[in-house]
């Protein structure tokens, strides 16, 4: 399935995020990072954005988050035009960006502290989130006492602490070793399933994109466009062994072919 300005097939599901002819230019219009992007993302779905470096994946994520404004077109979340950062949108980056002088639980509580006074209920929620990401025994550890994978788990718990129902993750596991990355993919799938959040995940890794997603948005080289939407049919939960199956690798080959056609 190879379509210019592709749109996800969402049926009658509630649409959380949508974009119409979204474009973004930089350097006074001389650099076209994203062009003519159209998309509709239903509630509770997991979307992966995959494509070559510089194709506009992270730009699209920042447009949805409200960190930057589009040069053309509109992005809406819950039916409202995005004009700046919103509390119902949470974002996680490749680096954990934890505060070194704060413990794990203090880092998780940071989004709450920035909006209001922390209550005992907030502290319990933060503690429960650290348990959810497998760090129950590391609540009072400082970042320097945690591995890179554990730091990303804290960052994920901090993201969930915001209470946002739309989660944007920009290559959050890209700097980790393959073993840790696989484990966190399994954890992320479990956690997102439990909280029911709509999730958009940026990655360069085709297998990771397919393993996690309901739909994979395949993007072209700059100027970035959504070249195709590949539907992922596998039921959840998905074991890691799924990635060795014929059906899974046929999807990987399909995405590679789409990317190859656009190089």
Write the layout of secondary structure elements.
Elements: E1 15-26, E2 31-42, E3 46-50, H1 57-65, E4 72-77, E5 80-81, E6 89-92, H2 104-108, H3 110-113, H4 120-132, H5 148-161, E7 166-170, H6 178-195, E8 198-203, H7 206-212, E9 215-219, E10 226-231, H8 246-261
Parallel strand pairs: 3-8, 3-9, 6-7, 7-8
Antiparallel strand pairs: 1-2, 1-4, 4-5, 9-10
Helix pairs in contact: 4-5, 7-8
How do you describe this structure in short?
This protein is an alpha/beta fold and 263 residues long. Helix content is 33%, strand content 24%.
Features:
globular, disordered N terminus, 6-stranded mixed beta sheet, 263 residues, 24% strand, Rossmann fold, single chain, alpha/beta, 4-stranded antiparallel beta sheet, 8 helices, 10 strands
Q: Largest beta sheet, briefly? A: 6 strands, mixed
Helicity range: 25-40%
Number of domains: 2
Q: Rg from C-alpha positions?
A: 18 Å
Number of strands: 10
CATH topology of the largest domain, which one?
Rossmann fold
Give me the strand/helix succession.
Answer: EEEHEEEHHHHEHEHEEH
* Largest sheet, spatial ordering of strands: 6-7-8-3-9-10
CATH superfamily of the largest domain: P-loop containing nucleotide triphosphate hydrolases
Low-pLDDT runs of 5+ residues are 1-12
């Amino acid at each position: 399935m190879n379509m210019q300005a592709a749109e996800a097939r969402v049926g009658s599901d509630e649409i959380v995020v949508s974009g119409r002819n979204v474009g973004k230019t930089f350097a006074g219009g001389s650099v076209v990072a994203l062009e003519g992007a159209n998309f509709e993302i239903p509630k509770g779905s997991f979307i992966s954005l995959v494509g070559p470096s510089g194709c506009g994946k992270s730009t699209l994520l920042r447009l949805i988050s409200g960190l930057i404004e589009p040069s053309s077109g509109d992005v809406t979340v819950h039916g409202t035009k995005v004009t700046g950062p919103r509390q119902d949108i949470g974002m996680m980056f490749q680096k954990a960006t934890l505060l070194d002088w704060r413990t794990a639980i203090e880092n998780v509580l940071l989004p709450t502290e920035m909006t209001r006074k922390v209550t005992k209920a907030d502290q319990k929620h933060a503690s429960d989130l650290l348990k959810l990401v497998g760090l129950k025994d590391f609540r009072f550890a400082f970042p320097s006492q945690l591995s890179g994978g554990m730091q990303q788990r804290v960052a994920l718990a901090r993201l969930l602490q915001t209470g946002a129902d739309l989660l944007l993750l920009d290559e959050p596991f890209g700097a980790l070793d393959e073993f840790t990355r696989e484990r966190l993919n399994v954890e992320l799938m479990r956690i997102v399933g439990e909280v029911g959040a709509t999730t958009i995940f940026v990655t360069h890794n085709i297998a990771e994109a397919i393993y996690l997603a309901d739909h994979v948005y395949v993007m072209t080289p700059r100027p970035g466009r959504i070249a195709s939407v590949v539907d992922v049919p596998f039921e959840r939960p998905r074991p890691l062994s799924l990635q060795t199956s014929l059906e899974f690798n046929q999807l990987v080959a399909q995405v590679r072919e789409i990317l190859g056609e656009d190089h």
